[in-house]
Amino acid sequence: MSNYLAIATVTATLKRILHAVVGVDVNGADVRTVRPETLTNDTTFVGVNLFLYQVTPNAALRNADLPTRRADGTVMQRPQAALDLHYLFSFYGDDTKFEPQLVLGSVVRKLHSQPILSRQEIQDTILHTTFPAPTSSNLADSIEMVRFTPIALSLEELSKLWSVFLQTPYTLSVAYQGSVVLIESEDRPVEAPPVLQRKLYVLPFNQPMIDSMTPQMIDSTPGAKLTLQGHNLRADHTLVLFGDIEATPDPGMTNERLVVTVPAGVRAGLQSLQVIQPIYIGIPPARHTSVEFESNIAAFVLRPSINKSGGVYQITATSTNVTLQANPIVGKDQRVVLLLSQVSNDLSTTYTFLAPSRSADSNSITVPIQNVPTGDYLARIRVNDAESALDISAGNYSGPKVHIP
To answer: Is 189 part of any domain?
Structure first.
């Protein structure tokens, strides 16, 4: 890469190689690198003036050095600026002898036949005594070579350039772009220590896929299990993710089938699960969540239930309230509805009551009731639209029951 002297070195090299040709093609022609207005009243000058009027970031390489620093601010690699140099070539001489046009033709021929500044030309310019360039310039060592291409400026652009920017009478001129010049910082990167141990991990891309799940509606009883069918389900490490709760599949899983127990903490209602296969790498091996394999998401309904104690449902009632113990624990933001149905086969008369909001998660739910006639009722709870099941005995609904006094 090249240092901060690169821009001046490009101009000096360009001046030297053009001087070698225009002086031969046009007798007495010379090359200068001054502001154009300084030549306005110089009627004796014959030749071309090189003026660097604009510098722009190179679109292709402007961000090629990123990132240059680590998170702690230390230098990772030397920052480099990629620049395009825009030159205005203005031509002078006796118009009656066509000298400006002759010099223009000589310059265009040279840059068209040899548009690149070679390393040898740059080095010769640095060592030259007549066209001195900064001696500590290292442009010749740059990876990218500087290539000159003509810029098609419109009449309006030329007019603005001369009348507004340069504020001097127009003279015959063309524009060229030199690209690309890389200027590298003097910052020294902090070198990392040598690699102590090489750990290269190559893994086949076997993403797990869930094709089906049974049952799709399951009661929230201890040990409730779900069976997943699919492919690529088995790996060195396989977990089933219920929301943000991880569960380990039961032993005996295969690539096409696994069984998992619904873990405690999964709430009633519509839930989702996903098979994940963590990757453990490093010394010591550690889990990296950014590279683990994940399956598609499957949905199921976890039905709530009313707890039993000693074979008796934990539900009591007064004429104004029904209190029950629900499983699983009910979140404070979950919507709970109590359904009381008269004991019959068709459940033709059902009373529905919405539980009030709660300040905390709880298994104990108290629901206010009103205008419910005295008698025995079958009780159900509905949590986030998932409804508890009724017991069936001899073809009839048998529980859970509650007596309303």
So the answer is: no
- 295-299: Cβ within 8 A, 24+ apart: 295/207, 295/208, 295/209, 295/210, 295/230, 295/233, 296/209, 296/210, 297/272, 297/273, 298/210, 298/213, 298/228, 298/272, 298/273, 298/274, 299/216, 299/270, 299/271, 299/272
Q: Which two tokens stand for residue 377?
A: 């009722």
**284 contacts: CB under 8 Å, gap ≥ 6:** none
- 126-134 mean pLDDT: 68
Q: Is residue 322 part of a domain?
A: yes
Per-residue pLDDT at 173 exceeds 90 = yes
pTM, full prediction = 0.53
pLDDT in tens, 141-153: 898 999 999 999 9
Write the CB contacts of 155 (distance below 8 Å, at least 6 apart in sequence). none
Residue 258 lies inside a defined structural domain of this protein? yes
**Domain identity same for 14 and 157:** yes
- Cα–Cα dist 307/323, whole Å: 12
Q: Kindly report whether the peptide bond that precedes residue 402 is cis, defined as omega within 30 degrees of 0.
A: no
Strand (E) positions, 1-99? 30-32, 47-57, 80-92
